[in-house]
Amino acid sequence: MTLQLKAVAKDYTVRGKTIRALDGIDLDVARGDFVCVVGASGSGKSTLLSLIAGLTEPTEGLITLDGDAVTGPGPDRGLVFQHGALYPWRTVESNVAFGLELLSIDKAERARRIDWYLDETGLGHLRKSLPKQLSGGQKQRVAIARALVCEPDVLLLDEPFGALDVQTKEDMQVLIRRIWTDTHTTVLMVTHDVEEAVFLGGRVVVLASDPGRVAADIVVDLPAERDLAVKRAPEFVSLRASIEDLVREQHRGHLGRSRGER
């Protein structure tokens, strides 16, 4: 399975003026990859994820998954947002089960998957709880389990830990890295946090702004087995700094172009 974007562009119309949010995006994500996309605000990170999820259509170019064109949402792509968007009247177990209700699988397989992903995300003891009884991190665990229980080809994460405190965020980073190792699910994650991208990803794609386009596609040459201690390793610190400099450089260029238009 390969997710491919070829010459993808996206335009929006604002007050009668056409704005190009993304332009000429070429990107390949192979089965089992963990790719993180970073960039300054306005670089089109979330727009990119929306296109891959099939929530919007590209103005130009083609998005394919295993050779088939992406024309709308589907169970082959799971999506998790910054805020989990759980159903408040459903229990944890029922929220996780929601996607399975739309699939043709038997009752025993449904129960097996729910149990496995509740355990994998550390939610087994909370299965009968309602969302209002959960912490922010626990809600995101439910959202991740709900996306994964359908066993999609690709898991799409749109800044899923951006609203969490630092400690909970790091706990969730360790969790998603472990889940990726256990399930071998292909992951494409958008984040504004370069440190997070370097810790989680096997590759970091940097988007430039105005319009959004790929400025760099960087291989993260760190051990596959990672814990939080790797963030203090010299090679980690060096790579994080170089990517932060690149993001900053692209943002300065965007600001310079914006001032020139005035």
TrEMBL record:
What InterPro entries does the annotation carry? AAA+_ATPase, ABC_transporter-like_ATP-bd, ABC_transporter-like_CS, ABC_transporter_ATP-bind, P-loop_NTPase
Q: Which GO terms describe its molecular function?
A: ATP binding; ATP hydrolysis activity
Family matches, as SUPFAM superfamilies = P-loop containing nucleoside triphosphate hydrolases
Q: Which UniProt keywords apply?
A: ATP-binding, Nucleotide-binding, Transport
Write down the SMART domains for this protein, in alphabetical order. Answer: AAA
- Return the Pfam families for the record: ABC_tran
PROSITE patterns the UniProt entry points to: ABC_TRANSPORTER_1 (PS00211), ABC_TRANSPORTER_2 (PS50893)
List the Gene3D superfamilies hit by this protein, alphabetically. Answer: P-loop containing nucleotide triphosphate hydrolases
Q: Boundaries of each ABC transporter domain copy? A: 3-234
Q: What is this protein called?
A: Putative nitrate transport ATP-binding protein NrtD
